[in-house]
From TrEMBL:
Alphabetized Pfam families for the sequence: Nckap1 (PF09735)
Protein name (Swiss-Prot/TrEMBL): Nck-associated protein 1
Species this chain originates from: Trichinella pseudospiralis
Alphabetized InterPro entries for the sequence: Nck-associated_protein-1 (IPR019137)
Gene name of this polypeptide: nckap1
One record GO biological process: cortical actin cytoskeleton organization
UniProt signal peptide: none
Length: 595
C-alpha cells in the first residue's frame, strides 16, 4: 500500500492543486450557492429547531434569534454588489461564546443534550466561512507549503515522477507547488522571508529546466529513430538492395544451384528488412521504441503546456520558454552534427543527405508543435558548406585538380591530375545536390554565399589589376605593335621569366590562372542560382512569373540603372546581365582601369 501511494503521489498532488484552482476560479459560484443555501434552508432549519427546544436561557435565546435573523436576511444581490463586503466573524464569535457558556456547570443549557443543534450550528459556521473565509479554508485544507522544509524529499519525488512514464504528465505540479511556499511566512519571523523566497524560486527554476531537458532528450532520441528509418529510403540504401538482388541472380546463373542438386545445402543469408516492415505488428499492444518515445513526448508536453504561466513570489515563469530555449540550442548543435564536417580530411555530408536529416528533424519538431503551443518554424542561419565549397572545392579548382563540365553542369575530377582528391566532386556539385544546398541555406544563406563568392572574384580582379599595372609598358607596346611579329616576340620575352634551364611564364600563367578561377567561381555561382530559381519557382511560382514578366517588358538589359532591379532578380535566382553582387564588391574597391 505504501508503494502504491508513493507511486501515485504526483497524481494526487496534481488533483489537489487542480481543485484549489477550480475553487478560486469559481469563487462567485461557491459563494452564491452558500448564500442561497443559508437563507433558504439553514435559517429555516435553525428556526424550527430552536422552537422545539424550550429550555434555552433568555441570553442564549437572544443570540440564537439574532443569528437566525442574520442568515435569513442574506441576499444574492448583495453578494453581486462589490460595495458590500461580507464579514461573519461576529456571528462565529457568538457561536463560540455560546459554546463557552454551555461548558459551565452553572449554565442551565447543555449542548451535550442537544446534539442536532450543535451539528447544525457547526454546519452553518462552515457555510459562512465558505462565503467570507474561502481563501483561508482552502489553505487550511490543501496547503502544501511544508515541502519548503523538505527540499531533498521534494526533489526526489520530482525525479521519480519524471522517470515514471505513467506519472510524467503530472510533473507540472511540482513547480506549481513552489508558489505555496509563501504560506510558510509568519509575522513573528520576518527574517525567513528571503530564505524561503530564494528556495521557492530556485526550486521552480530547477524543476522547469529539468522538464525541458527531459523533453529535449526525448525529442532527440525520437529524431535518431526517425532518421534511421528515413535513411532506409535514400538512394544509397536502395542501391545496396539492388546490388544484393543482382548478385543473387548472378550466383544462380553461374551454377551455384548445381551444388544443391548434388546434396549440398547452402546456408541461408539473413533476410534484411525492407523499409516499412516496422509498421507490421501482430497486436497493437506491442509497442515499439518509437511508440514509447511518442507516448513519453505526449505526457511531457501535456505537463509543459498545462500551465502557461507559474507565478512564484511575484516572478512569472513560462514553461514553454524553457522548452523553446532548449530546443533551439539542441537544434543548432544537431545541425552541426548532421553536417559531419571533419577538419582533418575536409569531408562533409552531402547536401541531399543533410536535407533529408533536417526534414526528419523538422517532422519531429512539428509533432512537438501539435502538443505544445510553440512555434518551431524559426529561421536558422547556417553556414553549412561555406568552408568546404569556398576553401576546399574552389581551391582545388584553382590547382586544376577539379574541372568544370559545362555539358554535365557539374565539377568533375581531373583525370590528368597527379594529386588524387579525397572526395568525388560530382557528388557535391551536381544539380540535385546544389538544389538541396539552396533549400538548406534558403534565400538569405544563398545571398551570403553569393556575396562571399563575389568577394573572391573581386579579389582576383584586384590581383589582375596589379598584374596589368606591373606590365603596363609592355602591354601598351604590344597593343601598338600587334602587326610586327619580331617586336611582339621581343615584348613577349619581357613577360617571361627565365630561371636556369626552366622556363616559367610568370605573368602569363598568373593571368590565365586568375581568369580561370574567376570563370570557375562564376560557373559555380550560376549553378547555385539555377538551383535557387527552381526552389523559388516551386514555392512561389506566381511571384517568379511576375518578376520574369517584369524583366521581359521593362528592363532593356544594358543600363547601369538596372542595379537595384538586378538585386531582386538575384534573390530569386533569375539571371540578369548586371551582376549586383559583383558590382557592389567592385564599387567598394578602386575603379578598374582599362589600359
Amino acid at each position: 500500500l505504501e508503494n502504491l501511494i508513493f507511486r501515485v503521489l504526483p497524481e494526487m498532488l496534481f488533483y489537489m492543486v487542480e481543485l484549489r484552482e477550480l475553487l478560486l476560479r469559481y469563487r462567485s459560484v461557491v459563494q452564491r450557492y452558500h448564500v442561497q443555501y443559508l437563507a433558504g434552508f439553514d435559517a429555516l432549519a435553525l428556526n424550527e429547531l430552536l422552537q422545539s427546544i424550550a429550555s434555552i436561557p433568555q441570553e442564549s435565546s437572544v443570540i440564537f434569534s439574532d443569528f437566525c435573523q442574520a442568515i435569513a436576511e442574506l441576499n444574492v444581490e448583495d453578494l453581486e454588489n462589490d460595495s458590500v463586503a461580507y464579514n461573519f466573524q461576529g456571528l462565529r464569535l457568538d457561536w463560540y461564546r455560546l459554546q463557552a457558556y454551555s461548558s459551565s456547570a452553572r449554565f442551565g443549557f447543555c449542548l451535550h443534550d442537544h446534539v442536532k443543534l450543535a451539528q447544525l450550528m457547526n454546519t452553518i459556521v462552515f457555510h459562512l466561512k465558505m462565503i467570507d473565509f474561502l481563501d483561508q479554508i482552502i489553505n487550511e485544507t490543501s496547503d502544501l507549503s511544508s515541502y519548503c522544509f523538505y527540499s531533498v524529499l521534494f526533489e526526489e519525488q520530482f525525479r521519480l515522477c519524471l522517470e515514471s512514464p505513467s506519472q510524467s504528465r503530472y510533473v507540472c505540479v511540482f513547480p506549481k507547488l513552489c508558489s505555496h511556499f509563501a504560506n510558510c511566512l509568519h509575522n513573528l519571523c520576518p527574517e525567513e522571508r528571503i530564505h524561503i523566497e530564494e528556495k521557492g524560486l530556485s526550486l521552480c527554476n530547477l524543476f522547469l529546466d529539468e522538464i525541458a531537458k527531459e523533453t529535449r532528450n526525448v525529442v532527440s532520441t525520437a529524431y535518431e529513430q526517425h532518421r534511421l528509418l528515413s535513411e532506409e529510403l535514400l538512394p544509397k540504401t536502395c542501391a545496396k538492395l539492388i546490388a544484393n538482388a543482382i548478385n543473387k541472380e548472378n550466383r544462380k546463373k553461374s551454377g551455384f544451384m548445381t551444388l544443391e542438386k548434388k546434396g549440398f545445402k547452402r546456408s541461408l543469408s539473413p533476410q534484411h528488412g525492407y523499409p516499412g516492415d516496422e509498421s507490421y505488428r501482430r497486436s497493437r499492444e506491442d509497442m515499439t521504441l518509437i511508440d514509447k518515445l511518442h507516448f513519453a513526448l505526449t505526457e511531457l508536453c501535456f505537463a509543459i503546456d498545462y500551465y502557461p504561466q507559474i507565478v512564484v513570489w511575484e516572478h512569472t515563469f513560462a514553461p514553454r520558454e524553457y522548452l523553446t530555449q532548449h530546443i533551439e540550442a539542441r537544434f543548432n548543435k544537431t545541425v552541426v552534427a548532421m553536417a559531419m564536417y571533419d577538419k582533418d580530411t575536409q569531408e562533409i555530408a552531402k547536401p541531399s543527405e543533410l536535407l533529408n536529416s533536417i526534414r526528419t528533424y523538422m517532422d519531429v519538431l512539428q509533432t512537438l508543435e501539435n502538443y505544445v503551443q510553440i512555434d518551431v518554424q524559426t529561421q536558422h542561419q547556417d553556414c553549412y558548406g561555406e568552408e568546404t565549397y569556398l576553401e576546399v572545392l574552389l581551391r582545388r579548382v584553382s590547382n586544376y585538380q577539379i574541372l568544370y563540365s559545362g555539358h554535365l553542369r557539374t565539377f568533375v575530377s581531373n583525370p590528368m591530375s597527379e594529386i588524387a582528391t579525397s572526395f568525388f566532386p560530382e557528388e557535391y556539385t551536381d544539380y540535385p545536390e546544389l538544389c538541396a544546398l539552396a533549400e538548406i541555406l534558403g534565400a538569405y544563406g544563398m545571398k551570403f554565399l553569393s556575396e562571399r563568392l563575389m568577394w573572391h572574384v573581386a579579389g582576383q580582379i584586384s590581383e589582375l589589376k596589379k598584374l596589368v599595372l606591373q606590365n603596363r609598358e609592355s602591354l601598351r607596346a604590344m597593343r601598338t605593335n600587334f602587326d610586327r611579329p619580331d617586336r611582339m616576340r621581343e615584348l613577349f620575352r619581357h613577360l617571361t621569366v627565365t630561371d636556369g634551364n626552366k622556363k616559367h611564364l610568370d605573368a602569363v600563367d598568373n593571368l590565365l590562372q586568375r581568369v580561370t578561377i574567376v570563370g570557375e567561381i562564376v560557373c559555380f555561382r550560376d549553378l547555385l542560382r539555377q538551383g535557387l530559381n527552381e526552389l523559388v519557382s516551386e514555392r512561389v511560382p506566381f511571384l517568379v512569373n511576375c518578376m520574369e514578366d517584369f524583366k521581359r517588358t521593362t528592363c532593356s538589359g544594358d543600363k547601369l540603372d538596372m542595379l537595384p532591379v538586378s538585386e531582386m532578380f538575384s534573390a530569386a535566382g533569375i539571371k540578369c546581365i548586371v551582376d549586383s553582387d559583383l558590382m557592389m564588391r567592385l564599387m567598394t574597391t578602386t575603379t578598374f582601369v582599362v589600359c
